[in-house]
TrEMBL record:
Gene3D superfamilies (UniProt xref): Metal-dependent hydrolases
InterPro entries associated with the record: ACMSD, Amidohydro-rel, Metal_Hydrolase
GO CC annotation terms, alphabetical: cytosol
Pfam families noted in UniProt: Amidohydro_2
Organism annotation: Hyaloscypha variabilis (strain UAMH 11265 / GT02V1 / F) (Meliniomyces variabilis)
Protein name in UniProt: Amidohydrolase 2
Signal peptide: none
Length: 343
């Protein structure tokens, strides 16, 4: 069958289930202890499921193929580098094995420990060359430090060995959000006094958009111009701010000292793709197509945080020209990720 290709679809490996416990209160802030446990158990089941209800839902609603990735915060939530590297290796081996059970319906993106850019580059290479994965996914910044309070962002020259490998392999890196760390939830902090802002509604795009702006303006894409990254949720709202961001970034007072050769719009049109994951807004998608070009827009659902049926029901109502709709729903993804599917 020819259907949609959804590319931001989460799983958890059996070894990673215990790590979800720390996010109980953030996933269900209004629930009591017992309800929390029940909710998480159901959530675990949805994340663990690949070949049963997930595949059944895909068949029922017209999803041909899913690119799977380790759920947030994944490896980025582990501040110990040795543990993080092991988590990534175990998760990648598991996910590659699951996809090999049904390669016509499932592919995978590599989980990466970003403590050591050289090690991250080698793990990405192993996943692409040996495990048959189609790229990598990072969950915003890498937690570091004994207390997990440190944050490593990937826009510094420290990460040039990683970006060099991404360019060599010619595979995309997906930038995905994560919850705030515990240090940012203490009383008196930005989110600590405003926990209602946490999560997908507000905090995810506020925090991840910072990282995306930083990468775009850092010179990474000048040094590695073939690198491609992907941002979900309609580009974490950045497309709607590109005019203003570029207007001031190009100001004569700033242009001479900025670290990148080009502005944000240039890099979004040459190095960034956006997806529809968890942002089923037809006007929003049309705006992104108008701003960035249809070839830069991809379909995604955000399973299991969003419902396959809801995503597909929305997609059926999207009134794009036929050729544009086909590009967004499948052919752009096939070309970008070099998926073994018929266009």
């Amino acid at each position: 069958m020819k259907g949609t290709i959804a590319i931001e679809e989460a799983i958890i490996d059996p070894a990673g289930i215990a790590s979800l416990a720390q996010w109980h209160s953030l996933l269900t802030p209004a629930a009591g202890t017992h309800a929390e446990s029940v909710t998480l158990t159901a959530h675990e089941k949805r994340l663990l499921d690949i070949h049963d209800l997930r595949l059944k839902s895909m068949d029922e609603h017209g999803v041909e193929y899913m690119l799977l990735s380790l759920t947030s915060p994944g490896v980025q939530g582990e501040p110990d580098s040795v543990k993080a590297e092991k988590i990534a290796t175990v998760a990648n081996d598991y996910l590659a094995g699951e996809c090999k059970k049904n390669p016509k319906r499932f592919g995978a993106m590599a989980a990466l420990s970003m403590h050591d850019p050289v090690q991250a580059a080698q793990e990405l290479k192993r996943c692409v060359k040996e495990l048959g994965m189609f790229g990598g996914l990072v969950n915003d910044f890498q937690s570091t430090g004994e207390d997990g309070g440190g944050k490593e962002y990937f826009d510094t020259k420290k990460y040039d060995p990683f970006w060099a490998m991404v360019q060599e392999l010619d595979v995309p890196i997906y930038f995905h959000p994560r919850y705030a760390i515990k240090q940012d939830l203490e009383p008196g902090t930005k989110y600590g006094d405003r926990k209602h802002l946490l999560g997908a509604a507000v905090q995810f795009h506020l925090d991840l958009s910072f990282h995306l702006y930083a990468v775009c303006s850092s010179g990474v894409f000048d040094r590695f111009p073939k690198v491609q990254i992907v941002a979900g949720h309609l580009g974490e709202n950045i497309p709607f701010n590109l005019w203003r961001a570029c207007h001031w970034y190009n100001h004569p007072n700033k242009k001479g000292s900025r670290p990148s050769k080009e502005d944000y719009m240039y890099y979004f049109k040459h190095n960034v793709y956006i997806t529809t994951s968890g942002n089923f807004s037809t006007p929003g998608l049309k705006f992104c197509i108008q701003e960035l070009g249809v070839e830069r827009c991809l379909y995604a659902i955000d399973t299991p945080y969003e419902n396959v049926k809801e995503g597909q029901d929305w997609w059926k109502t999207v009134d794009l020209p036929g050729d544009q709709k086909e590009m967004v729903e499948r052919t752009n993804a096939i070309r970008l990720y070099k998926l073994p599917l018929e266009e």
